[in-house]
Amino acid sequence: MSFDTRRRYSTASTHDAPPPASGPYAAEEELLGGIAAELEAMGERATIRRTRGGQPFLCAAGAVSRLNEEITTARKGDRVCALWTWGDELPDDLHEAAAAIRRVINPEL
Description:
The structure is a single chain. By secondary structure, this protein is of the alpha+beta class. It has a domain at 33-105. The chain contains 2 helices and 4 strands, in the order αββββα. The protein is globular. The mean pLDDT is 84.
């Protein structure tokens, strides 16, 4: 590898770029962002990512363990709910949802 040559970076945006606040998935982004903030306050790692279609999902990983979980969202009428990978709903309360995710990604605690 030559250190004298410049690296070429793509100008294409990544899938992890934040969407506009008024985008079609703003409610989903807000819900997942709240859960991510609660998880990070508990000492775990959380990242919001997007599919190619723009649908956000939460990648949660244990700070100590090597377990992870992806949380998706679904609309039920006019409300947005968070879903486990197996399709069950998480609790509506952000703190309870984060605690449930933490029990899965960090079972030692």
